[in-house]
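Sample pair:
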Amino acid sequence: FRAWCPRGPLHRYVLRSGGALALRTRHIHMEGMAKAAVNMGMKHAKTGLLETDDFYTNGIPESQFKFDHKTYGSLTKVFDEHRKVDPFSHVRDDIDGVTDCIKDIIGSDHKVLNTVANYFIEAAGKRIRPAIVMLVSKSLNGGGEPTEKQGRVAQISEMIHTASLLHDDVIDKSDSRRGLKTINKLFGNKMAVLGGDFLLARASLTLARLKDPEVIELMSLIIEHLVKGELMQIHKAEPGNGISHYITKSFYKTASLMANSCRSAAILGGHDERCQDLAYEYGKNVGLAFQVVDDLLDFEGNTSDLGKPTLADISAGLATAPVLYAAQNFSEVQPLIDRKFSQVGDVQLALHYVEKSGALGETRTLAASFAENAVAAACEMPDCVAKSALITLVERVLLRNR
C-alpha cells in the first residue's frame, strides 16, 4: 500500500513480505545501496552522541542548523517542523535512571574489575542508544512512560555497547576514547578484555530476567553481529563490492544494536508487528546514518571535538565510505586499500584522492539516505512529543561534530 508521511514530502512505499518491512523514499540518491541496507537483517533472518553537559542540556546552537538542500532535500522541512523538541532533554531523567541502574547491575566486590567496568559508564559519553530505546518506547506508547522492561532493554543495550568498546580498543590498540585514556592503556589488555566480558555477563543476566524468549534471541543476536562485523572489518571486500561490504559491516557493528534494541522495546511494550517493524527500521537506519557520519568525521573532524585522533581508521588500515567512493573514481586508490595504507605516504595520498573525487559529498548523501528512512519510520508512529524528538534526533546525528 501507499502511505504519505504526514509531516513532510517523504512519499514512500511500504512493502510487506514475510513479515519484513522495507522503507523506500522518493528522494534517496543512492538507491541501490539504500536497498541493500533496508533489506538486510529483517525479521525473517533472525535465528549520548558524545555530549558535553552543555550539548546534552542545550542541544546544537541555532547557527549550526544549516543544510545543503541538494544533499538533504525534503529532510529540511521535516526537521524545521520538529526541532522545537530536544530529544535528550525529553528523556534526560530516563537516561539518568538507566545509568544509575547500570551502576547497580555491574557492582562487583573486585575493586579493579569494578573500576574497569564503571570507567566509561561514569564518563560523560555516548547515550544515544538508551535515548533511542526510551524515545521509541515513549512514541509507541503514545507518549506514555516506558515500562520497566523497556527500561531494562535500554540498560542492556548500553552495557553491550560499552563492552564492545573495551574489546575494540584492545583489537585496535587504541590509546584514547572520549578524550580519556582507554582501559587497555591504563590497566592492560587482559583487564580490558575481562572488563568487557564482565559487562556482557551482567547484560546477559539482566536479559535472562526479562523471561521473553523472542527478546532474548534478538538481543543475543546483537553480540553475534558485533563479532561478524569485526571479522568483516579484518577481511577486505571483494573487488567492486566495497560499498555493499561496508554497509553490511556497519549494520553488524553499529546499527544492529539499535535496530534490535528498538524492536525488543516494542515487543515488551505489547505492540503489534507493524509497530515492531517501524521501531526496527528507525533504529537500523539511524544507526547506519550515525556510523556513516562517524566515518565522515574521521576526515572532517578535529581531535579535540572527537576525543580521539582524526584519520584514525585509515591510519589503522581501514577503508571507510569516503575512501571507497574515491576508489570508484580513481583506480589508484584500490592498491592503497589492498595494502591497508601501510607504506609511507599512503594515508596522505588516499586523503588527496578523497578530496579530489568529491567522496565526502557522496558520503554525506549516503548518510542522508539512511536518515530519510529513519524519519519515514518515525513519521508512522503515533503523534506525540517523543515522535518529534525521534525526528530531531536524526537531525542531531547528521549535524554532530563529535
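DSSP finds 21 helices and five strands in the chain.
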